[in-house]
Amino acid sequence: MANNEPNEQAKIIETNYLKNLDFDFSGEVIRKGKILFSKPVKFIAASNNMKSLPEENIPEVAIAGRSNVGKSSLINSITGRKFIARTSQNPGRTQQLNFFEVGEKIFRLVDFPGFGYAKASKASIQSWNRLIKSYIKYRFTLKRVLLLIDSRRGITILDKDAMNTFNKLAVSYQVILTKVDKIKAKELQFIIEKVKDECNVNPAAHPFVHLTSSVKGIGIDFLRADIARLI
Ligand SMILES: Nc1nc2c(ncn2[C@@H]2O[C@H](COP(=O)(O)OP(=O)(O)OP(=O)(O)O)[C@@H](O)[C@H]2O)c(=O)[nH]1
Ligand SMILES: [Mg+2]
Fold first, then answer.
1. What's the mean pLDDT in 133-147?
2. CA dist., res. 162 & res. 151, Å (int)
3. CB of 84 within 8 A of CB of 75?
4. The domain that contains 96 carries what CATH number?
5. How many structural domains does the chain have?
6. Ligand 1, pocket residues at CB < 6 Å
7. What spacing in Å lies between the alpha carbon of 69 and ligand 2's midpoint?
8. Which residue, 35, 111, 196, 224, is the most exposed by fewest CB within 10 angstroms?
9. Statement: the pTM of the whole predicted model exceeds 0.90
């Protein structure tokens, strides 16, 4: 990595957030996000069918994406708890909908099982898909799905399938690029443009794309701020 590489990346991140004319990421918004996520967070339920979901009484934000994209790591990072969501080197670790409640009945983050896990059996893929689709379709309290995309891979066929499913279910979703610590600034710039173009042609996709690294803490305060103004 060239010496000026971290600077180049910092500039891209600054342009995405602080120089953004369409979305406000100023001090007050960031402060609200920090306050929200300084509240206690607890794991409250793991559900593998619609009947065992927690009561539908507070807003929920779901975290979706390919197996191994960094969903559980991102939940740990935004909640500031290292081990609240179980992460793993082995894809396919999260196999149910896991609910994490932030604050006393303020809102919940929902960790989805990852899609595209190569070793999953057909039957388990079908039951995950059915559960996720039903949850999205019938959950009145679901505010938005955050669709995590690995910045090294970009939008794959599996991600496009997920976007099409979300479009059809008419659920609002937003792309979050993960693991930006792993790529060079030029590649990051390229992938941002591509992902934004893709979002623009997908009716239910939110136009703002987040850039994150759970390892380096990049973009985390901005994501907290966005969640705080959403719920
Ligand atoms: N370098 C880097 N590695 C990351 C980052 N986020 C997650 N990882 C690593 O990626 C792997 C998968 O992370 P998880 O958070 O378990 O992924 P997941 O999407 O929850 O995976 P499933 O539950 O299997 O669907 C782990 O080895 C993490 O340490 C990141 O921002 N940067
Ligand atoms: Mg996981």
1. 96
2. 17
3. yes
4. 3.40.50.300
5. 1
6. 65, 67-73, 87-89, 91-94, 114, 178-179, 181-182, 213-215
7. 8
8. 35
9. yes
